[in-house]
Specification:
Radius of gyration: 22 Å
Distance between the termini: 77 Å
Oligomer: single chain
Number of helices: 13
Strand order of the largest sheet: 6-5-15-14-13-12
Structural class: alpha+beta
Shape: globular
């Protein structure tokens, strides 16, 4: 009996040691991730709590969180073993925001003024009408459907975890498939695909003659040191030389920014220069949120900044399901928190396929599409300007001209200029766990050039 008690005591000591020294520092981030995820999934896409917990939050450590939702007051609470409780509030028009104890929930706030007038006279993707029932002799439909079906799990499995695949060819919806519980109207989080949206606003302002991305970033705090040499171009290409650590399985700059910071653009703004601009590619969500903050500076009022994200792009091309969430300071979280239906994400890819032209109206200059797909120095052909590239052959059996929006857990909008093709895949597993090369290879192969 004494020996048994000793073993129990040792086990308890080990648990306490592991909990307090290994897990406890992460609890704030764990419960923060969970609360934000629950609030967004509940109030943006109307998902039941059990679906969010078994799907979106089915991540090691995050699954330790216990969650509750207040439907009346529209907030979510999460904690781990009752410790480090975090709260995320939902505000219509702004989405869910993870708040701290000092945030005044009673304070008034502005919301984007949107133009929600779906054009039902035009078929999808150019309008809100039903997609044309088109058949192309150049498509092997049997191979296309088989390839897409292979991206989904069999009932009861959690291996591929695909939620949606949408395929546009020559501006026509040629195939789509959804996992059980998801439809063409489901709003899904793009995570870092939002970066490509954020970068596009600079293309829009450049086309309007209101900004020059080759000029130094307009940041007053940088004017007395070498950071004043950093251009908007360097920021767009993630090649500024600023210090940043981006890992999602540990406490780092990225996780602290997303789940603790009140003013997200300030986190990267205040980092020192540790490399040489244009020669130090380093993927950074902080950089994209800094770009969101710079966008905010371009407008005379906060209302104008909020409106611009929708009036100049999202509502302009019919992405009426889209919603980009804000931080506590009112900045759009341009790195990570963009939501839309898979069909609307595909519209965004189609806009780039058409080099900025939409229903006869130019959104950005044609050469902007070439600009974002131009490899960043030192990125080994992997990255352009807020878009990922296949120029370096990451996907060996896929055309090298493919460039794409990419987000955590395998969100993708792939654009194939040489094939007049857009492919959207959304889910909960990313490369290498999910075979993107196989999915894209099969879809491209189904189109006979």
């Amino acid at each position: 009996m004494k020996k048994f008690l000793k073993i129990v005591v040792v086990c308890i000591v080990i648990f306490v040691f592991v909990f307090y020294f290994a897990l406890y520092p992460k609890l704030d981030l764990i419960s923060g991730f969970s609360a934000k995820s629950v609030a967004s999934g509940t109030f943006i896409d109307n998902r039941p709590l059990d679906v969010i917990e078994s799907g979106d939050n089915d991540i090691p450590l995050v699954d330790l969180a216990r969650n509750s939702v207040n439907q009346t007051k529209q907030f979510a609470l999460s904690s781990v073993y009752g410790i480090k409780e975090r709260k995320a509030i939902y505000r219509p028009g702004l989405g869910a925001t993870l708040i701290d104890d000092d945030f005044d929930v009673s304070q008034p706030y502005l919301v984007p003024r949107r133009t929600l007038q779906p054009n039902t006279a035009l078929p999808y993707p150019f309008g809100a009408g039903a997609p044309k029932d088109s058949t192309f002799a150049s498509i092997d439909y049997a191979l296309l459907k088989k390839t897409v079906a292979q991206a989904f799990d069999a009932k009861g499995e959690k291996n591929k975890r695909t939620r949606a695949v949408v395929v546009l060819y020559k501006g026509h919806l040629v195939h789509e498939q959804y996992a059980d519980g998801f439809t063409k109207d489901s709003r899904l989080l793009g995570w870092s695909m939002t970066k490509s949206l954020t970068g596009t606003y600079f293309g829009i302002l450049q086309y309007q003659g209101k900004i020059d991305v080759r000029k130094p970033a307009p940041i007053a705090a940088w004017q007395n040191d070498d950071r004043k040499k950093i251009t908007l171009h360097n920021l767009l290409q993630m090649n500024s030389g600023l210090e940043w650590e981006e890992q999602y399985d540990k406490i780092c700059d990225a996780t602290q920014m997303l789940f603790q910071a009140r003013d997200m653009p300030a986190v990267q703004r205040d980092k020192p220069l540790v490399g040489k601009p244009n020669a130090s590619w380093n993927y950074s969500s902080g950089t994209t949120n800094l770009l969101s903050g710079i966008l905010r500076q371009q407008f005379q009022s906060h209302q104008d900044y909020l409106d611009f994200w929708y009036s100049s792009l999202l509502d302009k091309i019919g992405m009426h399901s889209a919603l980009v969430e804000t931080d506590m300071a009112g900045n759009f979280v341009g790195s990570s928190y963009g939501w839309a239906t898979p069909r609307d994400w595909a519209r965004f890819g189609q806009l780039y396929l058409q080099k900025g032209l939409w229903n006869g109206e130019r959104i950005f200059a044609a050469d902007w599409a070439n600009y974002v797909a131009t490899p960043t120095p030192t990125s080994e052909g992997r990255y352009g300007a807020q878009f990922w590239l296949n120029a370096g052959g990451k996907f060996p059996d896929v055309p090298r001209d493919m460039y794409y929006c990419s987000g955590y857990q395998g969100q993708m909008v792939a654009i194939f200029p040489s094939h007049d093709l857009v492919v959207v895949r959304m889910g909960l597993k990313e490369d290498p766990g999910f075979d993107f090369n196989g999915l894209l290879r099969g879809i491209v192969k189904s189109i006979k050039k």
